[in-house]
Structures are given as C-alpha cells and as structure tokens.
Design goal:
The structure is a homodimer of 582-residue chains.
Chain A lengths: L16 H22 L1 E2 L1 H5 L1 H10 L6 E4 L6 H9 L1 H4 L29 H15 L5 E6 L6 H10 L6 E7 L11 H10 L8 H4 L3 E5 L5 H11 L5 E7 L7 H5 L6 E2 L18 H15 L3 E5 L10 H7 L3 E3 L4 H13 L3 E7 H4 L3 H9 L6 E5 L16 H6 L5 E3 L4 H13 L5 E4 L23 E4 L3 E6 L4 H15 L4 E4 L8 H7 L3 E11 L4 H8 L6 E7 L9 H7 L4 H8 L2
Parallel strand pairs in A: 2-3, 3-4, 4-6, 5-6, 8-9, 8-10, 10-11, 11-13, 12-13, 15-16, 15-17, 17-18
Antiparallel strand pairs in A: 1-7, 14-16
Helix pairs in contact in A: 3-4, 3-10, 6-7, 14-16, 19-23
Chain lengths: 582, 582
C-alpha cells in the first residue's frame, strides 16, 4: 500500500500519476473503513480526495498553508499529514477529531467546525506573511455550500484588497448539506456549463482573478491547475467541479443522505444505527406540518440544516412554499423572520444552538428592538447535544437570554415544549426563543399551561419548605430527583420550581421563598457564567438566602461524555445533596 | 412652500416635475436647517432627496413598503411622511429620532441603525405578503457602502428565491462612511462606467434582474425607472448613481468629513462644536502609529469606522500597509485578525461596542477556540457612549465576557488603558479585548501594572474593612467617591478593588474578603444581566457576604441622558450609600 509509506506530504511528491491514483483509491478505502464503523462526514470527503492529493503534491505544506472550510473535506488531508492510522486502524480512531486541529498537526492552522470561515482566516495568514516579508502560498479551500454565508462573502469581497499571493479553491459539488439555495448557485451552474467562460462571474464581480477546472476529480488536471497558480502574485479563485460522494455509489446518488453518516454496512449502505422511539426532530416536523396546513401564514425557516427539525426532502415538498431553506445564511434568516412577523406572517426559524451564535446582532437589532413576534427554535442546546468543541450547545443562555425584549423559554417535558411552541406561534407580542429539549422525550401526566403570556411567571411544581430547587429546562428531572433525595434525608419536602422563562426572574415568587426557605438551588443546562442561576444569585445577593448555582464551567470542552462533565461540575442529585448539607 | 403642504406621500403625486424639483430644494433647506443646528447624517441624506421623492411619487406607501438600510438616507422620507416639522421648525427637532422608527410613522417598518439589514428585512415582508396572497410592492433601499456586509450579501443572494415582486434600490454614491473597500466596488465602478451594461455584474451573478439609472439625482429619470419596475413579478436591482452630499458644496467635496456632522456654520462649513483637550480616539491613533513604526508586525484593522480610533485619512496614509479598513465586514475582520495573529502578526481590531455584536460567533469560533493572540478594542462601550437604541454600548459585557478563553479587560484610567493595550499587543498567549474608557480621559499618579499575564488577578487600590467595593472600568471613579462617602459616614475605610478582568473572578482575593468584610458592592458600566457583578454574587451565593450589584437594567433605552439612567439605576455614590446602609 502506498498510503502506508506516506507520513508527510513530501512523501507523495515522487509518486507517478498512476501511483497517485492508486493512492486515491487507498485513501477512499481508509475513509470507508473509518466512516462505516465510526460515522462522520462522508460525501464531501469522498469528493475531495483527488484535490487533496494534488494540493499536497504541488504545494509545500506547512510552509505553504492550506486552510479548510468547516473541515468536512479535510479527512484526506489528515491522512496525508501523518494521521492515516486513524482511518486505517480501528484502534486509532480516537486519535483524531473530525475537524482540522492544530493540536494534532502542524499542517492544520485552525480548529474549524463552522462554515464559511476559511477565506477570512486565510486572508489573515496572508496579511501576516506580507507584513513579515515572507513568500509562501496561502490557500483557502471552501465548498460551494459555504459560499452563501455572510462571513465567506465578506472574505471573498475583501480578498482582492490583499494584492498578493492568495489562492481560493472553490470545491463545487453542487450541493450544500441539502440542495443549495440562493441566486449565486445559478451563477456557479452557468460557470460549470460554460467551462468557466461565462462573462458574468461572481468571483470576478468580487474583484478576483479566476480559473476553472471541469475535472475536479482528475489528479493530473488538478496538478496542472495548481501548478499554474502556485506562487501567483495576486488573489485568484480556482473553481473546481467535484462529485460529492465520489467512489461510493450510494453517496454519489443520495447526496443529502450521505453528507454525514452514522456507522453503516458498506455492501447495502444501510445504517447500523437504528433509532426507535420518539424524537423531537420528527415530532417538531409533524407538529409544524399540521400547523402550516391549518394556517397558511405559518412558515418554517431553516438554514441548511433542514433535518435538525426533521424536514427531510419529502417533508419539505409537503410544506411547499411554507418551508424556506435559506442556505447557510443564519443572519439573513433571523432578519427575514422579523420581517415576516412584521407583515403578519407566523415564522418559526430553527437551527442548532451553536449556529445561532452567527445571529447575535440580528436577534438584538433586527428582531428584538423591533419586538416582532417570530419564533426561534434552538436545537441541541444542551450538554447532551453535539460534543465537538466547535458545535457545543452550552453557551446560548448567556448569549441570548441577556438580550432585551427576547422571551427565552426552557420547556421541561414534551407536552410543555409543544404548548410553548403553539403559544409562541399564535401570540403577537414578543420575539420568542424556545430550547428544544435535548434529554430524551420526557412525558408528563400533569396538565401543562397553554398560555405563557404572563412573562417571567415561574411555576411551583411542589410546594415545600427550607430548600427551593429552581430547575430549568433539561435539568428539571435532576431537580425532581434531588427533591426526592432531600425528602428522604430530611423528612421535609423541598419546594420544586419550573421557571420556564430563562430571560427573567419571578420577583414575587422569589421574594415569597424568603418566608420559609433558607436555601435556593438553581440548575441549568449550560455554562454558569452569564447564565440563569446568576440572576437568582444577584436577586438574593443582599439577603440571608443561601444560593447554590449549578451549571457548567465556562470553558471549551471537546469530545466529552456528558456524564463525565456533569460529575466534574457536581451536577448529580447526590453531589448536590452533599454540597447543600455540607 | 410646497413642503408645507405635504403631510403624506399622496400629497406629492399631483405635483409637476418642476414642482417636484422645487420640493427637492425645499427638502434640502429643511435638512440644512436641522443638520446645521443639531447635526446628524449629512452626505447620504443630501444625495438621496430626488430618489426619495421619486419613490414616494411612484409607490403607494405604506401599502407599498419601503425599507431603508441603516436609516442614514431616510431623512427626506421622514419629511414626506408627516414629519417635516422636525426639520423645518427648531422646536420640533426632538419629535423624531435619527432612524426609521415604526413608533413615529406607519411608513416606517423597522427601527434600523445597523447597516446591511434592509434586504433581509424586506425579504421577510415580501414572503409574508406572498403567504397572505397580497400584492403590494416591497422595496429595499441599500447604499453601496452597506453591500460589503455579510447580512446584506446573504440577503441579496437569497432574494432571487422569492420569485415574486421585490425591488432592491442600490443607492451608489461610491462611498462608504470613508472610501469603500472590497473587490465588489470595482464591479460597481465597471457598471457605472458602462452605463450598467458590463456583462460581469455582481447582482446578476447573485441571480437577480438588473436596471441601471445613471442620473440618480434626476427626478424624472428616477420616476421613469421606478414606474418601469412597479408591480414587477420577480426580484430586481435598480442601481442608481447618486452624488453624496448633493446640493451642499462642502459635503460634495469632502465626502468622508460630511458623512455625519455636528452643528456647523452653513456659510463656512466649520463645525460649531470645538472639542479641546485629550480624547481617546486621537491618543489611541498616536499610540498605534508609533507602535506600528517600531514593529512592522503590528497592524491596525477597522471596519468602515476608521475615525473611531482617530484614523483620519492622513493617519491612514501614514500607517500604509499596516492599516486595513475591511469595509463594513466585522465578521471578516475578527476572523482575519485571528489569522494574522496565528501567522505571527500583532493585530488590533477596533470598532464600536454595538458593532462587535456582529461578531459573536467569530470571536468564539475563529478567535477564542483557536486562542490566537489578537487584540480587540471595544469603543463606546458605556452608558456614556452613543445613546440611540440601535447603537447602545451597554451589552458587550454579557455578550463577550462569557466566551471562554477571551481575556476582557476594563481599564480604569488612561495610563492603565495604554499599559493594557501594550501588554496585549506584545503577549502571545490570549485573545484579548479591551474596553476603551468612555468617561473622559482620567489620569492617575499611581504606577499602573505593565503585565496583565496573571489572569483574573484583581488589584486592591485601598485596603479597608467591612465593605469592599469592586468597581469595574469606567465606574471605578464612582467607586472611589463611594469609598470616600463610606469613610465619612462610618469612620472606617472600605476596601476598594480594581478588578481589571471582566472575564473572571479572583477567587483568592474574594475568599480573603470574607475575613473582615460583610458587604461587597460591585459596579459595572453595562447591564447587570449576564454581567460582571452577577459572577461575584454567584461566588458569594452560599456564604454570609451581602452582595450589592450595580449596573443598568436589561432594556432597550433610546435618546437618554446618562445621568438620568444612572439615577434610575441608583448608580450614584449617594444612592448606593443609602442602599447598603438601609
């Protein structure tokens, strides 16, 4: 095997074209080994094997610097830069992350997991090079799907100002995660259809030089193209047309399904992970589909991750014009739903907690200053959510809940979640965000409230004494267990409160607790800094009430087990019991 | 006067062309009256008078809906929609804000003060219209300067997906606040130079139909153009070439200076506001210029507001390649400085607190996960900063200080500010943000620390007993005064602490205070929710220490006097004294 001999990119430079093609096959075998057993990003990596080989054949990494966007096409790069074992040998799977990672290799310059960042990051490398008087090549790799993101468009617009060596590889496989959305994709098609010759050219319109490579999976053609731009003295886009999923038929055919995969059977393509039982993605989709059929003013908006709320292709078709995928354009999505609400529509925008980070300003300015009644559904906002450092869902409480006018709700069970969602869609007074529960689908027998218009009104689920537990959202069940333990230990029932509202405090209720309580425990599924519990601590600051805040430490964590993190932060009923009776 | 008769746009529709031109002159007189006495956005409004008249002549506002970007070209619109008195009569100046404002008029759809939002907001109005089956025209107005912003580019890319009536007016005066930066401006020039005919066309490349109007200050030409697109059945860009400052020679000539003005003498163009004395803009500029001369790796980055740190045109020239204006592209700026720092440069990016809101995700993902040593200078981050609801500098503490890895510093005086800035530029371990003081230039005789590498180490400025005052940044001087009052009242000196670090707590020092203190007072120049003081309240939550947090209420405030807001929030030494000895 050639791949066995490759420990750094220099090792491939004496290979013949035939050998490089053989190497491509071997890389695909490695990808297949890891992906079929561990899962990961499938289609984009299969499509970028040849380009990666050509890049490392032509350029001298790490002196020449390649920056990958979102990292979903960086696996072959990892294999060529000393990390092949993590693909070939199962026992080394855990050696690496799914993203470029400077801690793993000097060939990785940034830890990247959000889209649309490579051009701007690479512009920075180029500018520093110029300031120092160095001469290396700086290369940004970006997929067509990522081009619709504001950060990428800002970066591409700026790039021509560099006036020095800068190479942008646009990896165009004519797909985002799902199909692309946005007018620029018509231009990419026109460029592909004209072999790059059509006069109207997005990249040239952004002030950049341009080169097209039709055969984006042909190593020789790519080497020729990259050789021709190596050491160029100005910024240029090299637009290459690749096949998403190349080399694995199911992935070539069903591109959306195979963008990312769980472990699967290579022969049949069937997933080995069979999830049975209820799940909020599908339930949210079903709810919204029904709602949209009943009311033509309801509209569901996503930003390139439609299945985060269950909208697979058939469901999107069913929703028709009442479903909008804006592509990777979260800022636009939030501003647009403000406009929809302003003109009498009932919009619901859903994406992952981590991707809402793109929209702080739009939530504040476009939505909340204008107080328009749009609904934001915040997915995987939890320690139980995605556990890669670039996709953590544990920061949205400090980020969003301190924005004035926003009503941010944390449901504690399935029935409450859908009651909140329904209330939010039908009310016309507030911008509302809702954390979709992330701790499994928990049902309740209790009647949940239908109306959440009494803003910041907490709900007492159990009236007790001495200790009050204020347990927010996903951590409500921990609060319930803690209550049981306290009763068992002391013989007295503690008070158990479901605050529901993350964005404010129920002063009357908190004031009332002073009468026959000495301790308040808060629980929240996110970092403590800037979070919910601190508001309670501030409220009681000058009183005799003892306040114990439980939540996560403010830090970046990576590839963790939720239970470990909870224990480290002493967020178990048993440990909390220890603390408050210490 | 014609303007006297105009109470709503309908009133201008029977005017002849001659009368409309006369109306334009009268509108300029009104603008001149208000701007010369009160100040405001000058150049963009002077340039957009004819287009505003033509828009309201052709379209039927408020049924047809016009959305203005950033509001800096909305003054003539205000005059035509029932608010002329606020321009003509001095006693009515305060009737209106400087921004579009739905509370003022049904012709305003959003309260807008940040750039690059109009297309996305208007897309929302259009989508809701389509859902409801209505037929009105939806018009987004956007200046060329705003086009470089990611939100605008996302919106323009998305617009073609609407497939229904949607009109984007690009008001191209070939200027941002300062000169434009970015490759797309070469394309706008090519379009202007070719009378809109050049084949390579940014807007067409984004999938949009296109029309060019060379005479953007000619009412007849504009009416013709707008009539031709009225009730169009698909999205189109109408690119009009206007003259910034049109009608006032100084503003036509010195476009950057006259983008925004303080009260001025009409005859000479001289500002009536003469500021003498020290100011942090100029001092920061002088410091950075010196630093850049000494070290070619230092680079200053701004996003379209170069003078927020004093970089006027001559200073920008002096800095040469070590100064970068990225245009309105804050996301790009933050990602780029991360890249610059990664490759050995020493970047400093400065903008206003309110505009940093655009960069939450870039600060978190591009900068802080990667832990690159870039410096962010946060300007007008204070209750003493800009007082329009869209430009408030009182939210950056909750927004930024809860992002892991970031070191956010709050200097308490001039010497400390420059010491922190110098330390930040020279260190290579942390992403650092610094709040530029905003309470006037306060000097100290004390020796300030040069090294801030002992992260989260607070500084005791006065060792005392019973009460500890932890006074952050701009509010340090309030803390000093409070300390004096306490001594006077009780005969005992309180402890006075300068925390310096917003992003963390000095556990050892706080623990030590328990020995001989019973009360802790925190002071911060920003909202309390998610802020600095709450971290202190959490720390002492389960102890006997009484904690009193002072800061602002979480709310959107508009056109306030700082002293009023401080009093409302009881942030004066006297009121705090009352509270803690109540």
């Amino acid at each position: 095997m050639f791949i066995e001999k490759v420990n750094s990119p220099a090792d491939i430079r004496q290979f013949s074209t035939e050998q490089l093609n053989e190497l491509a096959s071997e890389i695909r075998e490695g990808l297949m080994n890891r992906l079929s057993k561990k899962g990961g990003h499938c289609g984009p990596n299969f499509g970028f094997v040849e380009a990666t080989i050509a890049l490392h054949y032509v350029f001298n990494s790490p002196v020449d610097k390649i920056v990958f966007d979102v990292s979903h096409q960086s696996y072959a790069h990892k294999m060529l830069t000393g990390r092949k074992d993590a693909y070939i040998y199962d026992e080394h799977f855990e050696d690496i992350s799914g993203y470029t990672n400077p801690e793993e290799s000097e060939h990785d310059f940034f830890n990247v997991g959000h889209t649309s960042t490579s051009v701007s990051l690479a512009c920075g490398l180029a500018k520093a090079r110029d300031l120092k008087g160095d001469k290396e090549n700086i290369i940004a790799v970006i997929g067509d799907g990522s081009l619709s993101g504001g950060e990428a468009l800002e970066g591409i617009d700026f790039a021509s100002e560099l006036e020095s060596n800068f190479i942008i590889i646009v990896n165009d496989n004519d797909m985002s995660i799902a199909e692309n959305h946005g007018g620029l994709y018509k231009n990419l098609k026109a460029l592909r259809d004209s072999d790059g010759k059509c006069e109207c050219n997005l990249f040239k319109a952004m002030g950049l030089d341009y080169k097209y490579v039709a055969e984006g999976n042909d190593i020789e053609a790519l080497i020729d193209a990259f050789e021709s731009v190596k050491d160029i003295d100005h910024p240029i886009v090299v637009h290459i047309n690749t096949l998403k999923g190349k080399g694995y038929k199911p992935a070539e055919t069903e591109k959306e399904k195979w963008h990312w995969c769980m472990p699967f059977d290579i022969e049949t393509g069937n997933s080995k992970f069979v999830f049975e039982g209820e799940d909020y993605d599908d339930m949210t989709c079903d709810y919204l589909l029904k709602k949209m059929k009943e009311d033509k003013k309801v509209v569901t908006v996503v930003a390139a991750v439609p299945t985060c709320i269950g909208f697979t292709e058939d469901k999107r078709k069913e929703a028709g014009k009442q479903f909008i995928d804006v592509g990777i354009a979260e800022e636009h999505a939030v501003a647009m739903v403000s406009g929809i609400a302003k003109n009498g529509g009932k919009p619901v925008f859903a994406t992952h907690s981590s991707f809402f980070q793109r929209t702080y300003d739009q939530i504040s300015q476009d939505l909340c200053i204008n107080n328009n009644p749009a609904t934001l559904l915040v997915n995987t906002a939890s320690v139980y959510g995605m556990n890669d450092v670039t996709h953590l869902g544990i920061y949205d409480i400090p980020m969003m809940s301190n924005i004035p006018n926003l009503v941010y709700l944390a449901p504690t069970n399935c029935e409450e979640y859908f009651a909140m969602l329904d209330w939010s869609i039908e009310q016309d007074k507030y911008p509302v965000a809702i954390r979709i529960p992330c701790n499994g689908v928990v049902h309740t027998d209790k009647v949940v409230d239908a109306d959440y218009g009494d803003i910041n009104k907490y709900r007492i689920e159990q009236q007790g004494e001495d200790v009050a537990i204020i347990a927010l959202g996903d951590f409500y069940q921990i609060g319930e267990k803690l209550a049981g333990l306290i009763t068992k230990k002391t013989g007295k029932n503690p008070t158990l409160i479901n605050p529901r509202f993350i964005t404010g405090i129920d002063k009357e209720m908190l004031e009332g607790l002073k009468k026959n309580h000495t301790k308040v425990v808060t629980l929240e599924d996110g970092i403590k800094d800037g979070g919910f519990g601190e508001k309670i601590a501030r409220f009681y600051g000058a009183s005799d009430m003892k306040v114990y805040n439980y939540g996560l430490k403010k830090e970046f964590i990576d590839r963790y087990l939720a239970d470990d993190i909870l224990k480290e932060n002493r967020i178990t009923p048993e440990l909390i019991l220890e603390d408050i009776y210490a």
